[in-house]
Amino acid sequence: MRVDASRDEIITCMLRAAGLRSTAQRRVILAHLVGSSHALTAQQLHARLCDDGHGVGLNTVYRTVQALVDAGALHTFPDHGELAFRRCGDAHHHHFICQRCGRVEDVLADEVERWVTAVAQRPGYTVHSHRADVYGTCPAC
C-alpha cells in the first residue's frame, strides 16, 4: 500500500497526537486501518501487511494498535473472541456492523442521543459516555 504525501502527513499527525513517534512501520499500520472500511484484528492486519511486503512484526502491530486505542485514535470491535480495530471519524457517532462481511459504517443517530439524554436526566444517574453498535447485514450482502 502506497501512502500519498498529504495522507502521510495526516497519519503522522495522528501518531504524534497519540504520543507515538512517526516511524515507517507505524505509518504503514495506521495507513492500512485508515484505508479500511472493515475492522481488522491485529493478526488480520499483520497478514495484510506481510502480503503487501511490509516487514512489520506482529508485536509491533499489537503495541501500535493498543497505543492508538488508548489515545482514542482507533475504535475496537468484538470479532469472534478477539478485538478488531478501525479508524473512525472524529465526530461523535455510532456504528452499523455487518455480520456477514464485517463492514463497519459510522452512523449519526439522533434517536440514541435523545435516549441517552433521557437516561442522564433520571434521578441518581450520571452518564459518562456511551456507544451504540447495531449489528445486521449491509446492502452489499
Please give a quick description of this structure:
With 141 residues, the chain is an alpha+beta fold.
Task: Write up what this structure looks like.
The chain is α+β, with helices and mostly antiparallel strands. It folds into 2 domains: 5-86, Arc Repressor Mutant, subunit A (Orthogonal Bundle), CATH 1.10.10.10; 94-136, Dna Ligase, domain 1, CATH 3.30.1490.190. The chain is built from 5 helices and 6 strands; from the N terminus they run ααβααββββαβ. The strands form 2 sheets. It has a 3-stranded antiparallel β-sheet with strand order 1-3-2. Helix 2 (24-34) packs across helix 3, helix 2 (24-34) crosses helix 4 and helix 3 packs across helix 4 (58-70). The longest helix has 13 residues, at 5-17. The protein is globular and about 55 Å long. The model has no long low-confidence stretch (mean pLDDT 88).
Which percent range describes the beta-strand content?
15-25%
Strand order of the largest sheet: 1-3-2
The number of distinct helices, counting runs of at least 4 residues, comes to: 5
Radius of gyration: 17 Å
Helix content: 40-55%
Q: Mean of the pLDDT scores?
A: 88
- CATH homologous superfamily name of the largest domain? Winged helix-like DNA-binding domain superfamily/Winged helix DNA-binding domain
What ranges have pLDDT less than 50 throughout 5 or more consecutive residues? none
CATH topology term of the largest domain: Arc Repressor Mutant, subunit A
CATH class of the largest domain: Mainly Alpha
Number of strands: 6
Tally of discrete structural domains: 2
Shape: globular
Distance between the termini: 26 Å
Largest sheet properties: 3 strands, antiparallel
Along the chain, the helix and strand elements come as: HHEHHEEEEHE
Structural class: alpha+beta
